[in-house]
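STRUCTURE REQUEST FORM
Protein name: JmjC domain-containing protein
Source organism: Lacimicrobium alkaliphilum
Requested output: structure tokens
Priority: standard
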Amino acid sequence: MPCDKQTDYLLETLPQPVIYHSMTPQRFSTDVVPKFEPAVFKGFARDWDIVKAARQSAGDAAGYLQQRAARIVHRMVIAPADIKGRIGYNQSLDGMNFQLQDIDLARGIEQMINCDSQAQEQRCFQSVPVTSGFPALLDKIPNPLVSDTAKPFVWVGNRLTVSPHFDEANNIAVVATGRRRFTFFPPEQLANLYIGPLNYTPAGQPVSLVDLHEPDLLRFPRYAEAYQHGLSVELEAGDAVYIPSPWWHHVQSLEPFNILVNYWWSGSFVSSSMPFTFLLHGMQVTKNMTPGQRQAWKSILDHYLFDEGADPAAHIPEPARGVLGQLTPEMAAQLHQWLAQQIR
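Status: completed
Returned output:
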């Protein structure tokens, strides 16, 4: 049952992150990064050609992107109309609530631009590497705040919402077309966001089970506390947001057609199946973290590994708990194989 006072949980009434109207690499390094919190850069990409095209129309932006699309196929998310654009786990938490289709990039964008109703299936391409998917775009999307090792990715689609999740790397996301609302929660709000299964995820990271637009406080009562710590902001084409890892963020695309470009960067995160090597790896990956990142990852590890006072999977049905439940020999073997692949 949704909460009694829905207006008490409107994302639009949350405080905004700090907003900067100009940003330089030096200012980013000295004023933004040490705060370890999201920050908005208004007009950051106002001079990008794709943003200029978006000011003309969504169709112009779509055409601009299509003309620069490589002739490759990419996996497209197809969200049925009945999920109202909120992609994630299905009702039984044993799979996803969307379908996937491999399709030519330009053709997929054509399907998206022709979808003008929320009553239709909504589509999107997620995390398309610019180097392989849109190589002609590389020199048209400058980002002086990141190094050359931070490769850009393109996200393009209809009105879709991704529930709160975190990235394992720092992120600068730039709205190139349309509008997006970003809602943020500090890493220590993990326990109040009711995260779904970890061993299968919508797009690589586990996501919250809470519908932020209709929070069910009978099922997820601690979300009321998370909301008190939330930040939210609506970005227009040309605006950018910095999201330090591992802050939780909920992303809602607000227009019928939207394009976002993002950049991730961080150190390596490598796993091991042996406790002692886990300890050594923990030392290795945390030595060069900022104090904020180190404290944030401590919160995550405490929640899933060291906090004996609460079961982190209590809100997930037993058949869907995966690695959060009873570890069977078969699952242990699968997990060992997966870990081995990660450290090749």
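Reviewer notes: Confidence is low (pLDDT under 50) at residues 267-273. The chain has nine helices and 14 strands.
Form closed.
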